[in-house]
Every structure is written in C-alpha cells, then in structure tokens.
Write a structure and sequence with these properties.
It is a single chain. With 254 residues, this protein is α/β, with parallel strands linked by helices. It has nine helices and ten strands. The strands form two sheets. It has a six-stranded mixed beta sheet with strand order 6-7-8-3-9-10, sandwiched between helices. The radius of gyration is 19 Å and the shape is globular. The chain starts with a strand and ends in an 8-residue tail after the last helix. The structure holds adenosine-5'-diphosphate.
Length: 254
Amino acid sequence: MSEPIIEVLDLQKRYGNVDAVNGISFSIYHGEIFGLLGPNGAGKTTTLEIIETLKEKTSGAVKVYGYNIDRDAAAIKQIIGVQLQSSGYYPGLNLEQLLELFAGLYNTQINPLQILSLVNLADKAKAKVKELSGGQRQRFSIATTLVNNPKVIFLDEPTTGLDPQARRSLWELIRTIRASVTTIVLTTHYMDEAEYLCDRIAIMDQGRLIALDSPDALIDQLLQGGFERKKDVKAATLEDVFIALTGHSLEPAL
Ligand code: ADP
C-alpha cells in the first residue's frame, strides 16, 4: 500500500468523565473510501471533527498529508473538504452563488456549473437550498466540500434521513467522486452502506476501535469463526420492493 495520507495515533477525547474517543489508532490511504462505523455515541463524529481540526483532542497524534493537527491546522483546512450544516447557508443565495461564496472563503476561482454537474444539480443552479429535496440537499452539501479542490473529503452520515432511492443515488455519487476527485472518509451507522461503499471500515464502539479491515475480510473472519445465520435470508429485501415499485420517481439516477 502507498503512504498513509491520514495517520491517527492513540487518539483520545474526554468530556468530563466520558471517554468519547478512547485511544484509537488507524491510517487512511490515498484513493480509499474509508468508513467509520458504529452505533450512536461511539465517537465517530468526534474523531472526524478532530481530524478536520474543528475540535481539540485530549491526547494522541493526528497527521493529515504529513501536517500535524497541533501545528498546521491552517494548512490542513486548505486541503480538506468538510460538509457544512445546511442551516449555515445564506437563504437568499442560489446554489451557484453559494458555491462562489465558499470558493471566495478559500480565495480560489471555481466553475460552479462544473461542480454542480458533478453532483447532478446543474439544472438547479439558480434554485435556493430550501427548494431542494432531501437528497438534492445532500448532493449540494457534497458539492460544497469540493470548492477548494481538496485531497480528501469528510462526509458525516451522508445518507441519514434519506429515502432508499436518494440513498442509492448518493452512493453512486460518492463512488463517482472517489473515481474522479479524491479520497473519502465517511461515518455511517448503516451496515449496507458501509458494505457497498467502503474499501475499508473501522468499527468503533464506546470510543474504542474494535475492528479494522475490508468489509469482505470482516465477513470472512466471522464465517471462519463458525458463524451461521439463524434463518435463510430472502434474495431481495423490502427496500428492493419499494425501489422496484416506485422506480426512479423520487430522485433522478446519477
Ligand atoms: P457518534 O458520532 O459515534 O454518534 P459522538 O462522537 O457524537 O458519537 O459522541 C461520542 C460521545 O461523546 C457520546 O457519548 C457523546 O454524548 C459525547 N459527546 C460528544 N460531543 C460532546 C460534547 N460537546 N460535550 C460532551 N459530550 C459530548
């Protein structure tokens, strides 16, 4: 494998007497879709926000492209893409104007239509965020992470709250972005999402890292341990039924 682009070493974050992140270490490599998985409260967002230099750690070391988060936070901010909360968007501006505004914050020139095309929103360039569906908002929020031409983007629960079609459409978008742009680090509590999207996943629970491997390898390890499912699983799920019945009417396919 190539050199790691993100290195996390014995990272800890303590809130009062809660160990939100309790001594985790891992590396992320160029071109990966890397997933941080775990139940609510596992410490995923805290870990992500520390790497993004948005939150102070209690102890440990984190490097992003060789930059140390303690000394080089400004340099790290220049080369990463982070999703903003949609409540932070100026309501009076349209999508094109918002992207130009964000590019201005990075002191860089962009072609907003090119970025909107990448997330399949070119036809919404003159629309306001409040006029978008949930899936379109998420796609726009991914577009905002791309304005500074980042080397790595961070997506925190990118498909939470979306209907199945919008989720699958977003999965395809995330794969497209990885292929054409960058490395992606995401958090999710959806196992199907992690299995479909991620090259490797780190499973967190109660602040600790309890597994780190490719989805395939993790499943193989479980099966080698003699695991058997209690009952047969049907070849389709209710979600497949829903998508087959409703077609692509809710979200355009990418
Ligand atoms: P996840 O993203 O996996 O759901 P979080 O990183 O948000 O988990 O939270 C991990 C733990 O840290 C939880 O127990 C949460 O309550 C706690 N926590 C997160 N942020 C704060 C904060 N600002 N103050 C106090 N406790 C916090």
